[in-house]
Amino acid sequence: MDRAPTLRSKPVTAPRTVSILGATGSIGSSTADLLRRERDRFAVEALTAHKNGAALARLARDLGARFAAVADESAYAELKSGLARSGIEAAAGPEAVVEAARRPAEWVIGAITGAAGLEPALAAIERGATLALANKECLVCAGTLFMKRAQKTGATVLPVDSEHNALFQALTAGRREDVTKVIITASGGPFRTWSKDEIRKATLQAALKHPNWSMGPKVTIDSATLMNKGLEIIEAHHLFALDPDEIEVVVHPQSIVHGMVEFLDGSVIAHLGAHDMRIPISHCLAWPDRIDWPAPRLDLAAIGSLTFEKPDLERFPALGLAWATMRTGGGATTVLNAANEIAVAAFVEGQIGFTGIPALVEATIDGAASRGIMREPGSIAEALALDRDSRCLAKDFLPQIAAKAF
Ligand code: MG
Known about the structure:
The protein starts with 15 loop residues before the first strand and ends with a helix. The model has no long low-confidence stretch (mean pLDDT 95). Helix 1 packs across helix 12, helix 4 packs parallel to helix 5 and helix 14 runs parallel beside helix 16. It has three domains: 144 residues, NAD(P)-binding Rossmann-like Domain (Rossmann fold), CATH 3.40.50; 109 residues, no CATH class; 74 residues, Orthogonal Bundle (Rna Polymerase Sigma Factor, Chain: A), CATH 1.10.1740. It is built from 17 helices and eleven strands. 46% of the residues lie in helices and 15% in strands. The site of magnesium ion (MG) has 4 residues, from helix 7.
């Protein structure tokens, strides 16, 4: 008896093996959601988490992982008992997280936040894997090192961040040598229309209200200062080997256009999409193919209008500082990132005002420059050492910044 062919038959291929570093965070959870929808297409090799052993064990069972590791050794017992009789190997400690990255998955999702993400992401690059990178620090603190190693080992770096993913997709419209510039959009944050004086008095509560995306407090405050965009231009500089002059930022409050690429004939290719991180993640997971999932669709008629404006570097000096460190090169962006983390934490704890954030970052960069410590990190150890030194320096400047009424 003849069977009618199915309409959407897919070619039979082995599933793509995937590991998620930072599986219980926001990017990790969105990735897991997509993997659950495509169980035949992906096989999970390893998962890691910081210290939520119980959640990691549940996720590892659900996704059928072979190996699960928590960075914090105190969470090992919880992970181990959660995985009892599952056949899934449990491990703990920073080395176990690096081991997870070394295991033979074709794709690695690098979604650990902060400096802890450097070593495991580099381990994936060293074995030539495809790394879907969500961690900012890899590129901001050690971008030259990362991209050099990726080139050497043949590893592919796919950008998860919505703006860089947009640029990655738009760049495929033409030849690299025909690109004249890229344009990254910024929402402008909650203080986009505030005066300098109003921004100076901004409260923590006001800074935590992002107009479009719901994210963690650190990145939300970075969006309010525009430092987030500053870190993103540095990432773009490394990811796509762009000169600082080839990168532009435009404020686009609707956050519908995520990135644009201009070619020498004047054509500008834009990437648009709804506010859902699963859209860029699904692109990274399936690349160069696509996942057919019920993604939120754009309704441009309902949105009505898209507006664009120039960023104001006077009201948002953090963006200017990022430009300056990108031009300086060497370890300057490592210092910028470390100082910003201290500054944001100090603002959250009420030690400094909102405009104290860029002021502390600037003081730290100047201090690091005059001490001659801003050398290009040649290894992860050197990047981490410069990160630590910059944090100490920022803390030294903290009382001085706190005393000034910005
Ligand atoms: Mg972004």
